[in-house]
Write a structure and sequence with these properties.
The chain starts with 5 loop residues before the first helix and ends with a helix. The chain has two domains: 275 residues, Zn peptidases (Aminopeptidase, 3-Layer(aba) Sandwich), CATH 3.40.630; 156 residues, 2-Layer Sandwich (Alpha-Beta Plaits), CATH 3.30.70.360. By secondary structure, the protein is α+β, with helices and mostly antiparallel strands. The protein is 37% helix and 25% strand. The strands form five sheets. A six-stranded mixed sheet has the order 1-2-6-3-7-18, with helices on both faces. Strands 8, 9, 16 and 17 form a four-stranded mixed sheet that branches. The chain has a four-stranded antiparallel sheet with strand order 12-14-10-15, with helices on one face. Strand 8 and strand 9 form a beta hairpin. It is built from 15 helices and 19 strands. Bound molecules: zinc ion (ZN). Zinc ion binds next to loops.
Length: 445
């Protein structure tokens, strides 16, 4: 097991703090100065960086450490942009990278400049040691993930594919600890859900606001939105959901060992999810793992208070399980609220699942097992999307593995995009060392 020296860890921490201090809130992103900084770090280690500016100010940077064997590269990817932060709500200013209470505080520490710093540190150490692996290791720090990847990974895949073409990709979301009933799990992302954004248009007879109109388009839209938000669409257990839920149940023991596998059993899953899962957060995440979902997010109707409008529009953020399409989702939506509206698919992107029966996944499992013998690695389907969606188009096998052993009681999902986002220094150290072990062990072939 690799161990960082104190000096190496200080250098890595300084690197993370420097990265946090570039305000790369997206919009507008403005990743160029941060990308130039990463390029400088690579250059200092003799790695020639390539800066790719998709639009003025929207830059990604890629560096490659040459390997000796013929195996296809491993890409370590992270994004440089962050979601905005409202300064007044934070204990420490979000772009100050203050060290306090054993943590570095700031927007991007968890999502995901901490991973940029880990990847850079691994590259730096490999370069300094002249460590030669059986394949190239590529580091990409990209723009624009938080707004849909257009100026970052999507741009690289479309226009500079030769830079990022790899057999495997390691990216977010996974590798953090998930505590359930005192047991520590390490979900590793092996798949992402797809998107099917829908627009529903309800029509009715316009009229004067002084006369009741119980069947107006606004009233029907409101009923539909409420019904959809409270409904669960049918369960379609995927292989990754079965493994995630089944394995977690086995580890937790009775009664979970009995109840959890029922979630992915046809005819029973719905009852279990609706009546036996009491914690609302757990229920939401299990539902997202097992079902297509829709959330009403935008409503447009009326422009004058005394006129009943003739048209009302409802937009739904629909998410698809891998293997499902927008037309499957439309049929499920109609099953809940009927067909009394026009429906249009605004955007569709399919989900993807990568095999977890691979040497890289085995390396990840082994390294976690060594560093945390009580920890359990699970393949995991992420309900949202990341840059992996774009890299998957190149045929690469993509995993979310941003290793973070968090202290007890610290919940990853509350840090991610949250106020007071911060990374415990010990978790950061764990991450660098685990990532180093995975890259070297896997790259030794
Ligand atoms: Zn992210």
């Amino acid at each position: 097991m690799f161990q960082l020296s104190d000096e190496e860890f200080r250098e890595a921490t300084a690197l993370l703090q420097d990265l946090i201090r570039f305000d790369t809130s997206n919009p507008p992103g403005n990743e160029l100065p941060a990308a130039q900084y990463v390029a400088g770090v690579l250059e200092a280690e003799g790695i020639v960086p390539e800066l790719v500016e998709a639009e003025p100010g929207r830059a990604s940077v890629v560096g490659r450490l040459r390997g000796e064997g013929g195996a296809r590269p491993l890409l370590l990817s992270s994004h440089l942009d962050v979601v905005p932060a409202v300064e007044g709500e934070w204990t420490h200013p979000p772009f100050s990278a203050v060290e306090a209470e054993g943590c570095i505080w700031g927007r991007g520490t968890v999502d995901m400049k901490g991973m940029t710093a880990m990847g850079l540190t691994v590259m730096r150490l490999l370069a300094r040691k002249g460590y030669s692996l059986d394949r190239d290791i590529i580091l990409a720090a990209v723009a624009d993930e938080e707004a849909g990847c257009t100026h970052g990974s999507a741009h690289l895949v479309q226009h500079r594919r030769e830079l990022i073409d790899a057999e495997y990709v390691i990216n977010e979301v996974g590798g953090f600890t998930l505590e359930v009933k005192g047991k520590r799990f390490y979900p590793i992302q092996v798949g992402e859900k797809g998107i099917a954004w829908l627009r529903l248009c309800f029509r009715g007879t316009p009229g004067h606001g002084s006369l009741p109109a119980p069947e107006s388009c606004v009233a029907r839209l409101a009923d539909a939105a409420g019904k959809l938000a409270r409904s669960r669409l049918p369960i379609h257990p995927t292989e990754v959901a079965r493994e995630f839920i089944g394995e977690m149940g086995r580890e937790l023991g009775f009664p979970e060992s009995l109840v959890m596998p029922l979630l992915s059993t046809p005819g029973r899953g719905g009852f279990v999810l609706d009546h036996l899962v009491k914690n609302p957060e757990q229920k939401a995440s299990l539902q997202a793992t097992l079902c297509n979902t829709v959330n009403p997010t935008i409503i447009r109707a009326g422009s004058k208070i005394n006129v009943v409008p003739g048209e009302a529009v409802l937009e739904l953020d629909g998410r698809l399980l891998p293997g499902r399409t927008a037309s499957d989702l439309v049929a499920e939506v109609q099953g809940v609220i009927g067909r009394d509206f026009e429906i249009e698919v605004i955007r569709e992107a399919s989900g993807a699942v990568h095999s977890w029966k691979t040497p890289l996944f085995e390396s990840i499992r082994d390294v976690i097992k060594e560093r945390d013998p009580d920890g359990v690695v699970l393949p995991y389907l992420v309900p949202g999307f990341t840059d992996s969606r774009c890299y998957a188009e190149t045929g690469a096998t993509c995993y979310g593995f941003y290793p973070l052993r968090l202290p007890e009681g610290m919940v990853f999902s509350r840090l991610f995009h949250g106020t007071d986002e911060r990374i415990p220094l010990e978790s950061f150290r764990f991450g660098i060392e685990a990532l180093y072990d995975v890259v070297t062990r896997f790259g030794e072939g």
